[in-house]
Amino acid sequence: MRQAHNEALRQAWLDRITEDRLRELNQLSKQETERINRLRTEVDSPTEWAERAEQAARERLQPLLDSVQQVGEVQNKKSSSFKQQLLEQAADKSSVNADLLSEAILEDVLEGTAAAVWALERERGAEAQANRLLQEPTLESMLLRMEEMEKDQEEVRRRFAMISYSDPLLWERDTRTQRKSSSSRPASPQPIRLTKPAPRPSTTGDIVLQTPVETG
């Protein structure tokens, strides 16, 4: 920025010098015109007058023209150099800006990726913690489990008491049945009689087949 300001000041100085040289050139031109007019009145031959006027004009104007030409060349060189410097600075700034932009974009991408990974890890940690809390027994679930165990134990005690109370009655009833069966005497066995049916007479006659005898 400071270099550009200095270059602008140098350019303004060159422009002022050029304007001064042009002003001097115009003044010399006016003086030369007056001198030429004066020579016209003094010299009779037009050829001699033209040669003297041209020689005098060249002698007076040539240094000024050389100075103006040098100033113009310096100005052109400075201008082209200044333009080249501006272009180089713009290219450098563009390259730097592109690098900065790339770095900024890369930083944004890395920050976004890191934030996404951190959020994912945090979500996974919260989910794992929730699963552990669900799997771990809570006070309420432990109390409910203890109540269920107490109910089961009470049911077992009740069934055991029922079995204990019912067993003497069952034993007494079985004893009475055994006593009744032992007091009654068993009946004597009945004899087994084996009979054979008598043959029944046949009511049909016997038929005898014989050979026929011829008579006569």
TrEMBL record:
One of its GO terms (cellular component) is centriolar satellite. It comes from the Eukaryota. GO terms for biological process: centriole replication; protein localization to centrosome. InterPro entries: MNR. Residues 171-216 are annotated as: Disordered. This is Uncharacterized protein.
